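Before relying on records like the one below, remember that each one covers exactly one chain. Contacts with other chains, cofactors or solvent are not represented anywhere in the record.
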Amino acid sequence: MAKADGQQKQDRLDLAWLEKRDNETLDDYIKRLQRDGITRLTGNAELAKLVSQVSNGAITVGAFAGALTASGLYSYKLVKALKGAEVHAPGTLITRTINTRLAGALPGSRLSRVPPGMITALTGSDEAAMLGGFMRNGSFFMPTASEANLARVASQGGLANAAKAAGWIRGAGVVGGVASTAYGIANLATYDADMIKENPSKFATDLTGTAFSASMTALTVAPNPVTLGLAVGTGLAYGGALIWDNHEAIGKGLSEAGDWVGDRASDIKDGLTDGAKKLGSALNPFD
């Protein structure tokens, strides 16, 4: 017993498992650290495996839902944009709602007492966004905070005004998108030719996922029909790659679901048949 405890202690002190392996992508490396870390902390490899499977499954489902939802929603918005509708940055629906309600707040109401500076810090400054104005169809277009091209605002009014135009909420989306894209690029850089040949569907998922992240970041920074179209295209590609990469698990899940439905249908049929016999017997005075 003491020898086993000593071996476990020695395993915990061994830091070789923290080193990245030659045949691992950055994404694989981080997932292994999570799995091995839980194993070493708890001594339970099955628990670590379960946590890893649940985590990876949740991420895959979330990514698939996000990609297809974005593609469907932005396809609709792209059609409207091509007809002349303005394009708003992702995640600004709530901020636009807040700004509209504040603009229509009655004097003396609770909303009218909210400090304007606090709201614009969160939702973005329309005044700063005007620095991103430009000529369009012969007239000067003045964007709101949710419509402003932050890159144009920065070039014409500096980074400070671009940050003001974005606000904390949209700014967080930009920072998160840049970080996610940078991670995706770093992960792709860890692939080699043999790793791509061994698992092309995983490479396709990582590649299209990074492209989708980059296009969403571009849309958040510069909302326009071009970046909107890129988000639609990369979102569809990412969703397709996820299906390809997880087709075996999806097929198994559908098969199990079909078996479950078949079993339940059989049970229901038997129950209805039995119930009909009992009802017929109850109504038959000669039974």
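The mean pLDDT is 80.
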